[in-house]
Amino acid sequence: MTLINFWLDALLFVAVALVVWISLILWLVFPAPTKAAGWSLWGLTYDQWYTAQFVALCIAGALTLEHVVLHWNWVCTVLATRVLHRKRPDEANQAVY
Fold first, then answer.
1. At residue 90, what are phi and psi to the nearest 5 degrees?
2. Phi, psi of 85, deg, nearest 5
3. What's the CA gap between 47 and 37, in Å, rounded?
4. What is the DSSP letter of 44?
5. Which tops the pLDDT comparison, 42 or 90?
6. Which one of 29, 41, 49, 82 counts the least CB within 10 Å of its CB?
7. Cβ(19)–Cβ(56) under 8 Å?
8. Model pLDDT for residues 27-65, shown as the tens digit of each residue
9. For residues 53 and 23, is the Cβ–Cβ distance under 8 A?
């Protein structure tokens, strides 16, 4: 399980870094979208970079969701014991959370 968490976290880091990198390209390299017609960087137009940003964001979101799913037991325990000040929840209560 540790190895799965490591690779999931590594992929999540790469996905978020990719979103940041593409966002910086769109923000710093290209002019405003209405004036970007005809511009390209490494063979990709503004619209293609924008699509790549959306795809990278979806991948980062899916990996984040999977990260939370794999750590759901910990999330429920912290929520119950630290926030709600109750005893550690059983399996049925974790499903409710």
1. -85, 180
2. 55, 50
3. 9
4. E
5. 42
6. 82
7. yes
8. 998 888 778 788 888 998 888 999 999 999 999 999 999
9. yes
